[in-house]
Amino acid sequence: MNIQQLLAKKDLIICVGSGGVGKTTTAAAIGLQAARDGRKVLVLTIDPAKRLANSLGLKRFGNDETRIDLSPLPDAKGELWAMMLDNQKTFDDLIEKLSPDEQSRANILSNRIYRATADNISGSQDYMATEKLYDVVNSERYDLVVLDTPPVKNALDFLEAPGRLARFLDKRVMKWFLQPYDEGRVFGKLLMGTSAVVFRLLGYIFGREFLAELAEYFHHFRDLYEGFAARHQAVVDLFGDGRTAFLIVSAPNGPSLEVAEFFLAELGRRGMHNPGLIVNQRHVTESGPLKAKAVLGARSAALSEDLPPHTGGQLLARLGAAHRRLRELSAVEDGLVAGVVRGMARGQSVWSVPRLEEDVHDLPSLGRIGEHLCTPPEVVGSRP
Amino acid sequence: MNVQEVLQSRLLLVTGKGGTGKTTLSATVGRLSAQRGRRTVICEVDTFRPALTAVVGKKPGYAPTTVGPNLDICNVTWREALVEWLGDTVPGKRIVKAILDNRVVQPFLEATPGLRETVILSRIVKLCDQYEQVVVDMPASGHAVSLLGVPGVAMNLMRAGPIRERALQIKARLARRDTALVIVALPEEMVVNETVELWERLHKEVPSLRLPMVALNRSAVPSLSEGERALLDRLESDPELTEDPLAHELLVAGRWEAGLEQATAEALKRLRSELDVNVVHFSRLGALGGYDGGPERIVQQLAAALARQELAEQQA
Question: In terms of Cα–Cα distance, which of B72, B190, B34 is closest to A47?
């Protein structure tokens, strides 16, 4: 599928893949391309490189939606907005929204465990990304939202983030844990049977004081349970919606393509729409083996008269070797990508973006990546 | 004596941005230590698809598996670590079973802040008593910071009890002279930036942690002479060659290599000045990424390079 058609049809694009493959850059380039084509786009990103963030004028904290100045690209017809996710702020906003009254809001926000959890404990970032996503998609302020997912340790974490928090707020757990708290008893004293044993042990393991604080924390959160559960369901629905597409981003190397294969299988199994795979940073050569002396010998001799002896010969030897290495590398990459393509479904696409010599840190270079993405992809099951 | 500090550490934590080669470096150090007769284990941290499998050829489980003389691998999965930790903490197998069989306790334990990280680190600390070297293939940047920062958080939250004690033990282990951190980087501006930031954050979170070495993978050591560079520039701007596609191909390849060399030089300079640390660079192997020779060959070559660095250090 042509990427421009895809961008025109979808409301939400989620970029997934392993770390270090250019996911953030790809998300930004896709967003920019859609904005050039006339859509109003928000790119929701987690942690872009400082230089990219600076040159786009992004603020690092506070969840501000920043409009990117597209004047360096006079052909742009739409708008590009970007937001960097601030974990703590998202969590605080969420509590504010879901709290029934001012008192319960204040209780949660001042709880020490809450302060420690919201920003410091792994997994909260994955959850907050989905949370913010739900917010901006529902605001209907944008034609298209592009989400750059956080670097996930377990590739699945991201897809399951909403489920984990909802599970933790499971009513049964709450009821079981909060019963003694609600009834004002001291932990473990008046309970019978297994629960009594378990409670005593938890008290022993975590310390009574911590357990009491934890009970308070859960107690405050209980009021929010309905809200969390509903939002979880909404995010799950959003992932499976026909207007949502997942794009897998990879580099042309074994480890990141392995993660890509994993995502291909998982997204397929979950019935989520996955138009295909973007392979970044590919090394491309167009000719067969070359003899540097035959191609450049004459010009090299003419241009090196004033240089130390043998400079021309040495450089030509280096150029020949560099070209051999580049061809070798390009062949290795082609083989790796072909291996992944064999396992893809008919109709899925592979977009290739060549490695750019410059570091991508401004609009024109993002625009060039977008242009590469606009060239027709390799479509699985169709003959070129 | 920085390479030596890495090789002789009891606990070695390897982290860095995703895709820089953390697993390969972990396998390299582990292999080298094992060859030198130290009982060594390489651990992954709760990974769903252990990357070690591709490098070592066997899938690590929770219990260490032997993959060569003196060399074991394992995956510190959180559920198994929890079971082991409960077993160590709570007297009596029956009680542990009662806790684990309780349907509502599982999600409770999953939700308890810091528990996951504490039991994982606790298992790693325990492995340090069973092996002469424990090499941990840590999660990437941000996840590594939260993993290592958790004992501190847990200690603030819990004023007594076994978790606090465990957190104290972990902190003590991280502060020991034979515990070392290695950050793996690549000669790319973005990766170098993230490496500098990562160390700032880790140092703030765990001030006692030592960073004796940054490993710069896939480096290209500058080798173009000034004359060659000048000639490359001239050929690139030569009007007689602009229309020649074959000349263009060769010059692109030459510029690509010159770019790699320059990026390596810049990365070395920045890392050395901003982190004040020994940067050991590993040349790219084979076709840059080095997948042609297979992981086994890469690990062997890296191990040889590391041993050479160590020797150079000793002679200096």
Answer: B190
